[in-house]
């Protein structure tokens, strides 16, 4: 039997015991009047919560050792309130029908408060460990692996110059694979930055010059690509520096998956209180397993590499309180980014802040 199961069972036992104790005194307490009803109700709520711990505690996000620790905190709360009650009884509590129910209610409240304290501390500890592991992983992806891969690429470049035929083709495939791994590691680092981004950095910004800049960059890096751009004079929406990364990923994805000379269409428009940015390609339909990035909350094991860019797009746009969806058209795919449009008052406020 696991510690999590033992901890849950311990809390359920405490809750059932306290519930029965309160119900056992309910008749005499309720005869006192409304105050008696209040005492019983105040105790039954935490007591029943403890009795139902086997239902809600495993669904709280805590696991195994964490649940056991929370149960220990709940037991500590019960023990402390029990000692306080014993002290009150020793000193001499008034002899009324409410006393047993008051004691049981206070013990139930102590156990429930103990659980809350334990859960908060465990979640805080888990968050701290997650931040530490993310920092280590990010450092490894950003520096160690990238540096090692670059060394390998250097050796492969030398080896490619010294080989011919099938051997040279194998070396070229190896170099391409490593380039793809470097790109995936960089996207993983960008995902980490997107998750940790400060929402306070978002502000009204004109997306038009930013889109034009990223389109010019992809045209310079990929001379074979054709990009048709249809933009209004301005398209001001809430975003930040990460919107460039979003556009780069969508444009690069359209180029990489094109079957011939790639074509991309980029448009922007104001739709109600939102700004829509459409990125269309002439690629084969995006596979269903990769489309889950636009709707699922957790990345599946099978999609950990191919869909990183799409996950990054989704997380960044959703951090803006926006939405992302994809439509399949006859000759390709259209990815739509929906962002909150800035009002004239928002733009005025931002202008004033910039001048201060």
Description:
The chain is built from twelve helices and seven strands. It is of the alpha+beta class. The protein folds into three domains: 3-130, no CATH class; 142-195; 199-355, Histidine kinase-like ATPase, C-terminal domain (Heat Shock Protein 90, 2-Layer Sandwich). Helix 1 runs antiparallel to helix 3 (34-51) and helix 9 runs antiparallel to helix 11 (308-319). The radius of gyration is 30 Å and the shape is elongated. The protein starts with a helix and ends with a helix. The model is unreliable at 298-306 (pLDDT under 50).
Q: Low-confidence stretches at least 5 residues in length (pLDDT < 50)?
A: 298-306
- One letter per element, helices H and strands E, the order comes to HHHHHHHEHEEHEEHHEEH
Question: Biggest sheet, open or closed, and with what strands and sense?
Answer: 5 strands, mixed
The total of beta strands comes to 7
Number of domains: 3
Question: What percent strand?
Answer: 5-15%
**CATH 2nd-level architecture of the largest domain:** 2-Layer Sandwich
Key attributes of the depicted protein:
13% strand, 356 residues, two-stranded antiparallel ribbon, Heat Shock Protein 90, alpha+beta, five-stranded mixed sheet, 7 strands
């Amino acid at each position: 039997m696991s510690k999590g199961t033992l901890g849950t069972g311990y809390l359920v036992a405490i809750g059932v015991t306290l519930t029965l104790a309160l119900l056992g005194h309910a008749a005499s307490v309720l005869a006192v009047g409304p105050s008696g009803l209040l005492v019983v109700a105040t105790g039954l709520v935490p007591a029943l919560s403890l009795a139902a711990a086997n239902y809600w505690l495993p669904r709280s996000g805590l696991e195994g050792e964490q649940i056991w620790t929370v149960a220990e905190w709940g037991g500590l709360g019960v023990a402390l309130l029990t000692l306080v009650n014993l002290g009150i009884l020793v000193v001499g509590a008034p002899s009324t029908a409410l006393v047993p129910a008051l004691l049981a209610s206070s013990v139930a409240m102590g156990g429930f408060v103990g659980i809350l304290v334990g859960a908060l501390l465990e979640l805080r500890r888990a968050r701290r460990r997650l931040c530490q592991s993310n920092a280590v992983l990010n450092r490894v992806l950003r520096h160690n692996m990238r540096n090692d891969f670059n060394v390998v690429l250097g050796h492969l470049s030398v080896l490619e110059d010294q080989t011919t035929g099938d051997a040279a083709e194998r070396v070229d495939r190896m170099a391409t694979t490593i380039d793809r791994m470097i790109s995936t590691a960089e996207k993983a680092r960008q995902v980490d930055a997107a998750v940790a981004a400060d929402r306070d950095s978002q502000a009204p910004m004109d997306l038009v010059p930013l889109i034009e800049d990223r389109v010019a960059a992809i045209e310079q890096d990929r001379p074979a690509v054709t990009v048709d751009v249809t933009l209004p004079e301005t398209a001001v929406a809430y975003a930040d520096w990460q919107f460039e990364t979003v556009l780069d990923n969508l444009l690069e994805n359209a180029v990489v998956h094109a079957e011939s000379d790639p074509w991309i269409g980029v448009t922007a428009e104001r739709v109600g209180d939102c700004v829509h940015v459409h990125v269309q390609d002439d690629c084969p339909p995006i596979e269903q397993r990769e489309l889950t990035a636009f709707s699922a909350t957790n990345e599946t094991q099978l999609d950990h590499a191919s869909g990183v860019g799409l996950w990054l797009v989704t997380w960044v746009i959703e951090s803006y309180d926006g939405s992302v969806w994809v439509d399949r058209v006859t000759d390709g795919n259209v990815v739509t980014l929906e962002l909150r449009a800035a009002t004239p008052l928002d733009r005025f406020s931002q202008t004033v802040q910039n001048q201060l």
